[in-house]
Structure formats: structure tokens, C-alpha cells
Specification:
397 residues; alpha/beta; Molybdenum Cofactor Biosythetic Enzyme, Chain A; Molybdopterin biosynthesis moea protein, domain 2; Molybdopterin biosynthesis moeA protein, domain 3; 6-stranded mixed β-sheet; 16% helix; 31% strand
Length: 397
């Protein structure tokens, strides 16, 4: 059995970003850039008005001005410059006529036919967005490694980029093992259980940016498990159940039948101690415990890390925070303990309340959870009011 930090380092050392592919920008949401996005044009492409009003020369303040035309968003810039004593009606987003150096809001102007009087003394540059103010042509707008969220997609579009180079999404094959399992929709007989891990772990996989492939259920037979995994078209192979070392635990034997390499089997954590990690034919293999709460925790700690690294994410871990404990938590000698619960932000204080049920068998122990406490190995208890470390797994409320 190895400690948590050593296990995480071993996973990181074997995870490398998948090859890049070019995808249309509308299909790139959530992906990680493999190549920087460079602006193909200035943004904005001209000096433009930020207000509805009049484009003028600041030096003409105090004079009665002649209105010689108007400009709206989408209009081509004028071919002639605004001369002394002239003004142009202008609308938000319209290109500033050459010769003008500021915009006066319409509320600060008095118009009488084609004549204009300013009710303020404008300053040069007032209410004007300068050409290239946000981006200059040839400048890197988004670096390699950036995650393409809504703002990043919009920025790439503004750069004139119709497609982007992103790392391929990892594929993860999920196989539930156990003679006691029956598929959803079946009526479990005596000693049988409805298989639930595939649902939760496939949802977690999608949230982590991967494409899950559900392989269904296999019996407690190492050869059959290995055969199912061998045919899976995936970058990551994941089994649940059979991860321990009992007579009916076959994850390690299946890995050996695949000709794979065992990296670790058992980590000093609770829940999830019998987690297995190895590799076979350039594919990663994780064997997670069958108990639902333990399987979800091991996914959060190890599998999600691997998927984010394969996707090219330079910051693959969940965000962490310090919080004030509300309640009491017992330390576990020799093991890092991960109680699930709710983190709440009140003003500037983050608090954490552990759930009442922490059994590795309880599916409901992950329900409504948005954080996991990280309790180092030790003796005694951590009492209410003390500070602890958290992994944030969901939005704060």
C-alpha cells in the first residue's frame, strides 16, 4: 500500500496529452487548445463609437457645428475626413469618420435642423473604442492549454478563426463486474443488486471532458473481464468491483491477462483503499472498488486527473480551498480520510459540514455533495471551528 501523494505522482507520470485534431469552433466548447489562437485582424477593426451621439473634433467645442451626415454600425468608413466646424450623427458601433477624435452623447447636444450645439466641452478620445484596442493582428489571443469556455469561443471568433486545434477528447470504457449485479430495468432477485456505478461514473466522465463507452456488466471471471477490455476502443479502461484481493476480486488478474503493467494496488485512503492502477498497450487501466461511494471518490482523485491530463488540461485537478469545519471529524490512523459534505460561503468565510452518512456503500452519501474534506492520517478528532482542506466538486451555495 502506498500513500496518496505517491499514487497521484504515479498517475501524473503516465498521463500525456492526446494528439491534436482540428474542429470547427462551434464544436470546440470545453476543449483544450493544442495550438495558440492568433488574431487574424485588429479587434475592433476601426475606431468606433461607444455611444449614440455625434462625432466631432474636440477643438471645435463652443462652436455651432454643421451636421454633414450619419454613420450606423456596419456602415463603411467615410472616404472624406470631418473638417473643422463639422459633425456627424453617429450610432453605437459605427466607425468614427477620419478627422473626428471624440463622440458627444446625444443627451449632451442640441440639434436644430442641420446645426449642432454642444452642451459640454468634449475631450479627445471620449466615448471612442480605438482600433486594435482589444487585440492587434498577429497577437496571441488564447495560449495553448486554454480551455474554451463561452468567452474564449467568442474571442476566437472575433480573431477570425473558424476552426481550432484542440487535444482529442479521451475515450473511457466502463465495465461493471460482479456476479451480484443486474442491469437497470431488471428486477433483482435474492442476493442481487441493480448496477448503478456505470451511471454515476459515465456522468462524471462526461463532466471531466471524456467520451464514455458503457461495456455493461461482466461476471467475476478474470478471463472474461480481460476479453471485454481487450476489445474496447478507449484510451482509459475502468472496471468497478473486484478491485480488492479476495477470491472473487479479479481486476489485477485481468490486467495480467492483458499483458499489462501494475503500477499500484491499494492506496492509504478511506474510502477506496483497494484502488488499482496499471497500463496495457498504451492504455491506462483503473480498477475501482464496487462500493458506490468509494468508486466515486477514486474517480475524483485518480481517474478525473488522468482524463483531464489526456485532454491537455495544464490544471487538471479539482480546485481546493480552506474552510472552517462545522461538526466533528475523526482522523483515520495511517490513511487520508475523505468525508463528503457541503461547503457554504457566507460573506468571506467558507464552511464545511460533513454529511451524516460516510459509509463507502451508501449511494446517497454523494447526493447534494459539493466538496470533499481532505483529512490527513492521524489520531483523535478535528473539532468544530478548526480549519481543514477541501476539494471542491461542485458550485458553492
Amino acid at each position: 500500500m502506498i500513500d496518496l501523494d505517491a499514487a497521484l505522482l504515479l498517475v501524473r507520470a503516465r498521463c500525456h496529452a492526446l494528439p491534436a485534431e482540428t474542429v470547427p469552433l462551434p464544436e470546440a466548447a470545453g476543449r483544450i487548445l493544442a495550438k495558440a489562437v492568433v488574431a487574424r485582424r485588429d479587434q475592433p477593426g476601426a475606431d468606433i463609437s461607444m455611444m449614440d451621439g455625434y462625432a466631432v473634433r474636440a477643438a471645435d467645442s463652443g462652436s455651432s457645428l454643421q451636421i454633414i451626415g450619419e454613420l450606423a454600425a456596419g456602415d463603411a468608413p467615410w472616404s472624406r475626413a470631418l473638417a473643422a466646424g463639422e459633425a456627424a450623427r453617429i450610432f453605437t458601433g459605427a466607425p468614427l469618420p477620419s478627422g473626428a477624435d471624440c463622440v458627444v452623447m446625444q443627451e449632451r447636444c442640441v440639434r436644430d435642423g442641420a446645426r449642432l450645439t454642444l452642451e459640454e466641452v468634449p475631450r479627445e478620445g471620449q466615448h471612442v473604442r480605438r482600433r486594435g484596442e482589444e487585440l492587434r493582428q498577429g497577437v496571441e489571443a488564447l495560449p495553448a492549454g486554454a480551455r474554451l469556455g463561452p468567452a474564449e469561443l467568442s474571442l476566437a471568433a472575433a480573431c477570425g478563426v473558424p476552426a481550432v486545434s484542440v487535444h482529442r477528447r479521451p475515450r473511457i470504457a466502463l465495465l461493471a463486474t460482479g456476479d451480484e449485479l443486474v442491469p437497470l430495468g431488471s428486477e433483482p432477485g435474492p442476493g442481487k443488486l441493480i448496477e448503478t456505478n456505470s451511471l454515476s461514473l459515465s456522468a462524471l466522465s462526461r463532466e471531466a471532458g471524456a467520451d464514455p463507452v458503457l461495456l455493461g456488466i461482466e461476471s467475476d471471471n478474470a478471463a472474461r473481464i480481460a476479453a471485454r477490455l481487450r476489445l474496447a476502443d478507449a484510451d482509459v479502461l475502468l472496471t468497478t468491483g473486484g478491485a480488492s484481493v479476495g477470491d472473487h476480486d479479479h481486476a489485477q488478474a485481468a490486467l495480467e491477462l492483458l499483458g499489462g503493467t501494475l503500477v499500484f494496488h491499494r492506496v492509504a485512503i478511506r474510502p477506496g483503499k483497494p484502488v488499482l492502477f496499471g497500463s496495457s498497450d498504451d492504455r491506462l487501466l483503473f480498477g475501482l472498488p464496487g462500493n458506490p461511494a468509494a468508486a466515486s471518490l477514486c474517480f475524483e482523485l485518480f481517474v478525473r486527473l488522468a482524463l483531464r491530463m489526456l485532454a491537455g488540461d495544464p490544471r487538471p485537478g479539482r480546485p481546493s480551498a480552506r474552510a472552517v469545519l462545522r461538526g466533528s471529524i475523526a482522523r483515520v490512523p495511517g490513511q487520508t480520510f475523505f468525508p463528503r459534505g457541503r461547503a457554504t460561503l457566507s460573506g468571506t468565510t467558507l464552511t464545511f459540514a460533513p454529511g451524516g452518512q460516510q459509509s463507502s456503500m451508501q449511494i446517497a452519501s454523494w447526493s447534494a455533495v459539493n466538496a470533499v474534506a481532505v483529512i490527513p492520517p492521524g489520531d483523535g478528532r478535528i473539532e468544530s471551528g478548526e480549519e481543514i482542506d477541501l476539494l471542491l466538486t461542485g458550485p458553492l451555495q
